[in-house]
Amino acid sequence: MAIGFVRPARPDDAAEIARIQLDTWRSAYRRMFPAHVLANLDVAYLARGWTEAIERPPSERHRVLVAVEQSETASSTVGFAAFGPADEQALAPEEPPLPENVAAITDLLVEPRWGRRGHGSRLLSAAVTHWRDDHFSYAVAWAYEQDKAMQKFLTSAGWEPDGAGRALDVDDMLVPQLRLHVSVDIEAGE
């Protein structure tokens, strides 16, 4: 029987996080982004970024977590989440800064072959625990408009679109996103 759990990422997780990110993007976003853009992404470059995020986060409130599935014979890192205080990357165009009590998910991915086993929910639950410990009251996350699976996952967990939108310029192709938000304030009954 397999057991799933979440733990803080360690520096030696960076390469696996990068591999999961790249494999998931190439699978889930292959119809969203130009093929050459996905083909030219470099796992070593992504791993360096994850090493930096794990070893030298911008603040104590920035975190990277990994989801692990463990059986009697093996242990596999199957997904990850990265989050911290909402910064300029959490904003819609021309939007003023968000309040200091708002957290932002920058990445939340579970490798497709490990999907539908509760790993995403465990990552999100662990994030909420950290947000509450770090005195955040709300959280935001961007989802690609075409990524109905991510939107369904977040809305099933109580998130709602907040009306903000933007489009990422990916090799002269605009890829629209919508932002979702949720209250994580214990006093609000969440």
From TrEMBL:
InterPro entries per the record?
Acyl_CoA_acyltransferase (IPR016181), Bact_Acetyltransf (IPR050832), GNAT_dom (IPR000182)
Start and end residues of each N-acetyltransferase domain:
4-181
- Specify the protein name: GNAT family N-acetyltransferase
User: What single Pfam family name could you report for this chain, choosing any that match?
Assistant: Acetyltransf_1
Q: Which domain of life is it from?
A: Bacteria
Q: Which UniProt keywords apply?
A: Acyltransferase, Transferase
Task: Determine if Magnesium is one of this entry's keywords.
Answer: no
PANTHER family registered for this protein in UniProt: ACETYLTRANSFERASE (PTHR43877:SF1), AMINOALKYLPHOSPHONATE N-ACETYLTRANSFERASE-RELATED-RELATED (PTHR43877)
Native organism is Paractinoplanes bogorensis
